[in-house]
Amino acid sequence: MNIHNKLILSITCVCSLIAGCNSTVKLPEVQPVVNTQPVEIIKSPRDDRAYQYLQLNNQLKVLLVSDPNSEQSIASLSVGVGSYHNPKSQPGLAHFVEHMLFLGSKKYPEPSGYFNFIETKGGSSNAYTAKDHTNYYFSIPNEHYQGALDRFSDYFKNPLFAPVYVDKERTAVDNEWSKRKSHDGVILQRVRAHTGNPQHPSSQISVGNLQTLTDKPNSKLLDEAIAFYKKHYSANQMNLVLAGPQNLAELAQLAKQHFADINNNQAQTQEISIPGITADNLNQHIYYQPQQTHKLLFIEFALQDNSDDWQYQANRYLSYILSSEEPGTLGEYLRKQNLAISSSVQFAPDYYGKDGFVQIHVSLTDSGVNKVDQIIAATLSYINLIRTQGINQQYYQELAAMAMDEFNNNAKGNLMHTAVNLSAAMFDVPPQNLLNRSSVFAEFNPSKIEQVLAQMTVENMRVWHVYPQVTVEQSIPHYDGKYAVKQISAQEQADWLNASENIAMQLPKTNELFDTQEDLGIATELTQPTQIYHQDGIEAWLSHSRKFQHNQGWMELIINTDVGDWDGQYKVASRVFLNMFEQHLIALRDKASRAGIDIHIQPYWGGSMRFKIQGKSAKHLLLAEQLLQALVNYQPSKQEFNQALTKYQEQLANKALDTPAQQAQRLLTQLVYTALTDDQLLQASKYVNLAVVNKFKQQLLNRNKVLIFAFGAYRQHELLSAIDTYSQILPAERKRIDRYKKPLMPIHAGEQLNFSHKVKHTDHAVLDAFIAPRASLKDSLSLKVLNNFYHSAFFAELRTEEQLGYQVSSMAFDYQLKPIFAMLVQSNNTNYKALKKRMDKFRKDFASKINQLTQAEFEQARDGLLSHYQQAPNNLYEEAGQYVYDFFDNQTQFDSKKRSIELLQQLTLQDIQQQYRNMIVGNKQMELLIQLRGSKSL
């Protein structure tokens, strides 16, 4: 099982911060004074950043993060208001305000000025609206931090809320709503709203549309938006994180300079006290027929919020036991009985505010769909076992030790992600515990666990049935799909309890993979990936970490073959076999994960099998041996095959219901690599049986090259010894092949390829890609610099001003070092032909803008991209990443990052201008046009 200690279910989407404005909201100024709070932020011994918590005179709470190694500076500001605070007169208003806010301010009135400033300097920005807060953030090269902060902060003082952009942003929000109205995850949240307390604010939609966001009697949309802003966007309801290489004193000065004059209107904390689930909403069967093919069962228990008792970790304790895959546990029982493919646990005790729920998620087999009563009985049996035998100090201490070990070994993460997460967490977590909350365990208190278990009863339950076979009749306003509700009978409850008494289970045993050794004492001898073995069809590379050589590692072991590319049947067989084998090892992977070791079994080129092992490295070599031995020994059953093939076919069929933008991006990869499309794979799957899968497995083991890459705390002689063992496990007579990677399609300059297809989604989408015929790292980097200018202007015109779609983007990347520049638009109001025409016009018109770029503008964009390459790694995995990806590309000089820095430093304005002429408006490339026609007539 997968543990979800707390899932923050944002019903809204993450939105780009870009748009425009004109009607000023004037706010008074306050004196900029900083009040330093004597709070020590508890951090990991491996974290070399400095932290300081303070509060400005206007009661705005600030966390400063100083990281001298950062090439970027970051700001994240969270406001304590979200979709739960929407007025009934304007559903979706909080999200609409997020859209309107960054459309110009009094000091910076240009609608797209902020976003253009950030992006052309090599930075990025975004925002999201959650149920209880809204978060705005950006990252930018350090030399532009002052200018970015000045623009960013002015939106929280003097936003324009220009009337001219009201309808434009209504259209943008409508496009966003349209994009997700058939998404099962979103629809399920609406079903939750309709089966809960109708008085709770979750009963309203969180992302509005043209029907909900409109002028009404006694409710003018713009007036309501401004009133909402004035009421809720108050300094005492804001958390700010400033992070960068500046020292703490400098960051404090920046906070004071830019944010101390945000108005504090003494807004009251908008706590939601209305319960989300009442007694009337309990004891329900809830039926939903998914848009995609899913077979899911959610066994849900209503909970009172216990977040204030977080230090006792009761929810995490129960997740730890409930989610175990050890022999005799609930997860193993459901799989062994062929009732479930997988299962997981989700605690959301404050989902509604003062109450929430815990859910046991079960991904059902076909047999499980028909045996729901047995699954419910088994769940109740296991919960009762925990209640009677599972509350003990030994489990608590093991969990606490694992949490503390993870914290102590946790190096710092990505600074942007850290800032965004911390600014939101500051609403709920004491400042001193912002970094170590997950490792704080108060003295073992059984009563805290018993209080949660007391609510996990058959009388306090709701059962969600999410599979195609259900009968439904009630429509869901504003969203696709239908649902139904039926009361759970007293007889059903009695039957489940009676059946539960006859199901024998056991609690998990101690995890023998867990150890607390903090440093393996392995010296840094190889500072660059070095080939240490190349014979007998095995190629192995090893590198040590320069900065994080303690007890962590990243190991790749790939059985590289070409068999999966022989034909469609083998392609399908390769993926079905991998899925079966991954499922076969679920217990081992779960146990390793709890001990701080992540094992991923993933596909690689040509049906190859990739074992990716990350985390505490002491047992990696042994685990790799166990994985190889398990692969050789594994003999899939007919039942396993049927289950895996059905799941694979369902996943392929579901892809046809992805958004057109998602489908277009997937098609680009498939077409460029001349791979089979999803429809072709689905057709080929009809001719695959267990015999074909077994034949594929034989070919995989008998025709391959074994690729090994290890980075971090590994001893060379131990790795060499392990390789000898691996060689003995593999068939002695196997055919050794050269490393295989599927080649690209032939790329011919001046050629245009068109792919047009009708999709089930209502929206239309166009992806227009330009592909260079020759590999060039320099040209690929040139396109990335160009895109810093192109993306923001493309978005501003087609999205902000013309509202041709919610998803409007351009991208620069490469496949096997062949540069690609692509534009993508998904729209619910413009057809694919008109989109292509407008994209072509923009592409040609923008040539003049590129020709007019100044040297200073070019250097800012180039240096912004350069800063990303020059960024020092924050942890071992960032350090290893550059080498792992070179390893995948067979770039065994392992110098892609170094060469990228050198080429960027040499890049000139004339280079990118010539690149635009050649690649984007000229004919020295191949154009691949993908046009997807939605079901809506436009």
Automatic annotation (TrEMBL):
GO cellular component, as recorded: cytoplasm
Keywords attached to this entry: Hydrolase, Metal-binding, Metalloprotease, Protease, Zinc
Domain Peptidase M16 N-terminal span(s) in chain numbering: 61-184
All residue ranges annotated as the Peptidase M16 C-terminal domain in the record: 222-398
Entry EC number(s): 3.4.24.55
Tagged with keyword Zinc: yes
Xref: Pfam families: Peptidase_M16, Peptidase_M16_C, Peptidase_M16_M, PqqF-like_C_4
CC cofactor: Zn(2+)
Annotated Coenzyme PQQ synthesis protein F-like C-terminal lobe domain residues: 786-883
Annotated GO MF terms: metal ion binding; metalloendopeptidase activity
All copies of domain Peptidase M16 middle/third, residue ranges: 407-683
InterPro entries for this protein: Metalloenz_LuxS/M16 (IPR011249), Pept_M16_N (IPR011765), Pept_M16_Zn_BS (IPR001431), Peptidase_M16 (IPR050626), Peptidase_M16_C (IPR007863), Peptidase_M16_M (IPR032632), PqqF-like_C_4 (IPR054734)
Gene Ontology biological-process annotations: proteolysis
Function per UniProt: Endopeptidase that degrades small peptides of less than 7 kDa, such as glucagon and insulin.
Family stated for the protein in its record: Belongs to the peptidase M16 family.
PANTHER family recorded: INSULIN-DEGRADING ENZYME-RELATED (PTHR43690:SF18), NARDILYSIN (PTHR43690)
Protein name: Protease 3
